[in-house]
């Protein structure tokens, strides 16, 4: 990958209609006010090669609806405040040390009530699959199913959160613009930590009839269901 081209977009305000219009540049999101009162937002995006890191700051009571992005998986990394992420028929608390992974085929809603800051890490779904295939040295057949919750308090989840913050600060401060090799290494590490941190299951026939040539550490990154229920 070539990491030399970096996009940077920032916007802020208090008008939720303007927020909806601005989000169209990012997700085609729709905003719905939950109660009267002052609302504030600030969004700062940096992106390269289909990967983006978005620092968002909100205050108020409103809901943002994000339609499924067929090509992109989304990871929310809370910094301060609480929110609820509604995915399909589930409501997941988005609190410190608990990341939320949203599959490329899932619509989701972010329910904000009060001050809230988080990072949104968006990555190409195909890139995640490709990296898993490289680890296993085979081709993926069928759909990978990812868990929605990510433990950010320890291990690779904690490393993912720290690196995402480092990259965003470095890109908005432009220090990483001058060192694309360093940026490339950080992005590569983020993707690998993400694969280690998020639970995922594979179709039952994923490894059927295929010789396994990976290491035991690679094998531990996948979970092969033993029954129809996983």
List the helices and strands and how they pair.
Layout: E1 7-13, H1 16-23, E2 30-33, E3 40-48, E4 51-59, E5 61-66, E6 72-80, E7 83-87, E8 90-94, E9 98-102, E10 108-113, E11 116-124, H2 125-136, E12 145-146, E13 149-151, H3 155-172, H4 180-197, E14 200-201, H5 216-219
Antiparallel strand pairs: 1-3, 2-5, 3-4, 4-11, 5-10, 6-9, 6-11, 7-8, 7-10, 9-13, 12-14
Helix pairs in contact: 3-4
Question: Could you describe the 3D structure shown?
Answer:
The chain has about 230 residues and is of the alpha+beta class. Helix content is about 25%, strand content about 35%. The chain contains five helices and 14 strands. The chain has helices at about 15-25, 125-135, 155-170, 180-195, 215-220; strands spanning about 5-15, 30-35, 40-50, 50-60, 60-65, 70-80, 85, 90-95, 100, 110-115, 115-125, 145, 150, 200. The strands form three sheets. The protein has a seven-stranded antiparallel β-sheet, sandwiched between helices. A five-stranded antiparallel β-sheet has the order 2-5-10-7-8, with helices on one face. The protein has a two-stranded antiparallel ribbon with strand order 12-14. Strand 3 (about 40-50) and strand 4 (about 50-60) form a beta hairpin. Helix 3 (about 155-170) runs antiparallel to helix 4 (about 180-195). The longest helix is centred in the last third of the chain and has 18 residues, at about 155-170. The chain is globular, with a radius of gyration of 18 Å. It starts with 6 loop residues before the first strand and ends in an 11-residue tail after the last helix. The relative contact order is 0.15. The model is unreliable at about 205-230 (pLDDT under 50).
């Amino acid at each position: 990958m070539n990491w030399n081209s970096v996009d940077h977009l920032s916007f802020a305000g208090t008008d939720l209609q303007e927020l909806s219009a601005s989000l169209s540049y990012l997700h085609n999101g729709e905003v719905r006010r939950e109660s009267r009162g002052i609302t504030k937002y600030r969004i700062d995006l940096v992106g390269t090669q289909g990967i983006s890191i978005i620092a968002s700051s909100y205050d108020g009571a409103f809901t943002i609806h994000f339609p499924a992005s067929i090509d992109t998986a989304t990871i929310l990394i809370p910094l301060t405040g609480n929110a609820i992420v509604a995915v399909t028929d589930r409501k997941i608390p988005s609190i410190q040390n608990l990341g939320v992974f949203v599959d490329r085929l899932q619509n989701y809603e972010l329910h904000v009530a009060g001050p809230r800051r988080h990072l949104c890490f968006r990555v190409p779904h195909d890139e995640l699959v490709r990296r898993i295939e490289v680890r296993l040295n085979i081709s993926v057949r069928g759909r990978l199913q990812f868990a929605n919750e990510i433990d950010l308090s320890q291990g690779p989840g904690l490393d993912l959160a720290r690196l995402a913050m480092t990259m965003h600060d470095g890109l908005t401060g432009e220090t990483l613009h001058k060192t694309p090799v360093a940026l490339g290494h950080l992005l590569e590490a983020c993707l690998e930590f993400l694969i280690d941190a998020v639970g995922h299951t594979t179709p039952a026939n994923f490894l059927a009839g295929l010789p396994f040539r990976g290491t035991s550490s690679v094998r531990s990154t996948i979970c092969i269901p033993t029954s129809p229920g996983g």
